[in-house]
Amino acid sequence: MEAILQIDNLTVSFDGFKAVNSVNTEIAQGEIRFFIGPNGAGKTTLLDAICGRVKPVDGQVLFNGKLDVTRYAEHEIVNIGIGRKFQVPSVFTSLTVEENMELAVVKDRSLYASLFAGMSKAQQACNDDILNTIGLYEKRRRGAAALSHGEKQWLEIGMLLAQQPKLMLLDEPVAGMGRSETEKTGELLKKICQDCTVVVVEHDMQFVRDFATRVTVLHEGAVLDEGSVFDVQNNPKVIDVYLGRGGEQDA
Ligand SMILES: Nc1ncnc2c1ncn2[C@@H]1O[C@H](COP(=O)(O)OP(=O)(O)OP(=O)(O)O)[C@@H](O)[C@H]1O
C-alpha cells in the first residue's frame, strides 16, 4: 500500500535536547498506526512536528510522497489534509452538537456569524453522515455540555472529519474512557480509516492490541521497534523500557 506519510530523519530539538531524534517511518494509507512508549519518549512532540506546531531542526515529513509538510504553517497543514486532535476535548460546550459540527466546516472562524445564516444542503448532508458515523445523530440538538466525556471526544473527531482530512492525528483519544467507550472509539477508528489514515499516540495497551494495524515504539526520542502488536510486545527491549514497567498504567 502506498505511503501517505513518510518521515525521514526527523529531529526536534528544545534548547539542544533532542525530544525527537532521527525518526524514520512510513505510514501506509488506511493504517491505524499507534505510537507507544514511556512518558517523555517524544510521541506528542512527533505529532506536533507532523501538524506544524513545532518545527524540526532536521529531516522531512512527506505527505502523499511529495509535499514536505515541515515547510508549511499549522493552518496550511490543516488545509493540506492533516487533522489533529489534542488530549483535552475542545468542543464548544455552549453550542449544540450540530452547531459544533457546523462550526467545524468553516475554516475561517470569522465567518461564524454568516455560517448560521445557512449551510449548503450538501454540507448539511455530509455533517449528518458524520453525526451518524460518530453515533451522535440522535443527540444533534442537545447541548454539547450534556455529552459524556467519550461523546465529547467523538464529537471532536467528527469535527475533524468535517474538514475531510486524509490523515488524522489523535493524542490519547481514549484517556479517561471506560472499556465500553474505548471499544466504541476503536470501532469508530476502523470506520474512519477506510477514507482517512489514523495515527494514534496511546498508553492503553488493550486498545493498542485490539485496533493497531502497526505499532511504532519510541524511546528517548528514537524508534526502538516497529511492527505488529505481537512482535513489539514480545521484543525484550520494549518490555524492558516500557511494557514491563507498567507503562500502560502511566497515562
Ligand atoms: N516545549 C518544550 N520545551 C522543552 N522541552 C519539551 C517541550 N515539549 C516537550 N519537551 C520535552 O520533550 C520530551 C518529549 O516530550 P513528549 O511530550 O513528546 O513525550 P511523550 O512521549 O508524548 O510523553 P507522555 O507519554 O508523557 O505524553 C520530554 O522530555 C519533554 O519534557
UniProtKB/TrEMBL annotation:
NCBIfam families: urea_trans_UrtD (TIGR03411). Gene3D superfamilies: P-loop containing nucleotide triphosphate hydrolases (3.40.50.300). It comes from the Bacteria. Transmembrane segments: none annotated. PROSITE patterns: ABC_TRANSPORTER_2. Residues 5-245 form the ABC transporter domain. CDD domains: ABC_Mj1267_LivG_branched. Keywords: ATP-binding, Nucleotide-binding, Transport. This is Arginine transport ATP-binding protein ArtM. It holds the Pfam family ABC_tran. GO terms for cellular component: plasma membrane. One of its GO terms (molecular function) is ATP hydrolysis activity.
